[in-house]
Structure formats: structure tokens, C-alpha cells
Design a protein that fits this description.
By secondary structure, this protein is mainly beta. The chain has one domain. About 10% of the residues lie in helices and about 50% in strands. The chain has two helices and ten strands; from the N terminus they run H-E-E-E-E-E-H-E-E-E-E-E. It has helices spanning about 5-15, 95; strands spanning about 30-35, 40-45, 55, 60-70, 80-90, 105, 120-125, 135-150, 155-170, 175-190. Strands 1, 2, 3, 4, 5, 6, 7, 8, 9 and 10 form a ten-stranded mixed β-sheet that branches. The longest helix has 14 residues, at about 5-15.
């Protein structure tokens, strides 16, 4: 994904927060993540409907799902671990029929321009950005996607799933297992104006 497209998707997601007050009741998102043998868990209620980052540009077949988890970092400082998935779906699947995003996605190394439907890549971003863990193989299973509509016709999504992949460190090339789950993760469906 080009940097310009990535920044455009992030800008659209920032605009989402402005309408959080008119949203329906927000479910509690439950996170579990195990990285190289270390277990993390959290429960979050994000009244802005943004406990997950889910985006797909209009006319595109790449869906981005970001699963952030706040943890205690080095020296007791707050840090965020983010499992980010780039999945190949049907074109405009998030906009046309999000419920069809449910299913199994084979995770492997990023292959620009050669990904097939139901495949994807994954990266776990850690406290030190240079030490990202890139997936070599594994899977993401999206168990459920539900769309909730507010009184003003704004659409919100609730997604649950789990994942497991073997990963290699960008910093020192060591390998380890990453596994996690998210239950009732929330996101706002952004209308792409392109």
C-alpha cells in the first residue's frame, strides 16, 4: 500500500472520532495477546467506536485490520502493541457486505501484487518500531462481523476473531510465535468519498 493511500485511510479514521457522541451503546472489547511467550490481556470500552482499525479504500481489494493493545512498556511506561493485518478480500467487501469478511485468512510474507483472495500478511508492531515482528506463516480467523446502525444512519462494526502466526524480528532476525484474540472489537464504517 502506498504511503499516500495509508495516510488517506488514517485521515478518514481520525474524522470518525468526531461523531462518537451519536453512536449506539458500545460493547466492551476483550483483547488477548501472547508474544514470544509473554501474555497480555485487556478490556476496553471505546465510546468513539475505535477499539479496532478497519479500513478498505473504495475499489480496493485490500482490507487493513489493526488490533492495538495497550501494555506496560520498558521502565513502566505505557506502550502499544499492534497486530496489523493486510488481507485480500473481494473488491469493496467492507462497504458492500461486511458480514462476508468472516472466515479464515492464510497469513504469510507480504507479496506485493500477488496476493490471492483469502490470503494476507501480518506484522506485530512493538514498543520499538525497528523491532517489528513480521509473519512468515499462520492464520487469522474472523469469527464474526456485525453492523450496527445508529439513529442518524451512521454504521458501526463489531468484529471478533483470533490469530496465530510465526514471526521474525526485523531487529535481530530471531523467530517466535504470536497468538491473540479480540472479542467485540469496534470500528466505524467510513464512507470513502473517492
Amino acid at each position: 500500500m502506498s504511503e499516500a493511500r495509508h495516510f488517506r485511510m488514517l485521515a478518514m479514521a481520525v474524522g470518525v472520532g468526531l461523531c462518537g457522541a451519536c453512536a449506539p451503546d458500545t460493547p466492551v472489547t476483550q483483547y488477548r495477546l501472547q508474544v514470544c511467550g509473554t501474555q497480555h490481556e485487556a478490556q476496553v470500552t471505546d465510546r468513539w467506536w475505535g477499539s479496532l482499525y478497519v479500513a478498505q479504500l473504495s475499489g480496493d481489494n485490500q482490507l487493513v485490520v489493526g488490533v492495538p493493545l495497550a501494555v506496560q512498556g520498558e521502565g513502566g511506561h505505557p506502550a502499544t502493541l499492534t497486530a496489523q493485518f493486510h488481507l485480500t478480500t473481494a473488491q469493496d467487501q467492507l462497504r458492500l457486505d461486511p458480514s462476508k469478511l468472516s472466515g479464515r485468512y492464510a497469513i504469510g510474507p507480504q507479496r506485493e501484487g500477488r496476493a490471492r483472495l483469502g490470503e494476507g500478511a501480518a506484522v506485530l508492531f512493538q514498543e520499538v518500531p525497528e523491532d517489528a515482528l513480521r509473519a512468515s506463516h499462520g492464520e487469522l480467523v474472523i469469527d464474526r462481523v456485525e453492523i450496527v446502525r445508529s439513529e442518524d444512519d451512521t454504521e458501526y462494526g463489531v468484529m471478533s476473531g483470533h490469530y496465530r502466526f510465526e514471526a521474525r524480528s526485523d531487529a535481530n532476525q530471531s523467530t517466535c510465535a504470536v497468538a491473540g484474540s479480540f472479542k467485540d472489537g469496534t470500528f466505524k464504517l467510513v464512507k470513502d468519498s473517492s
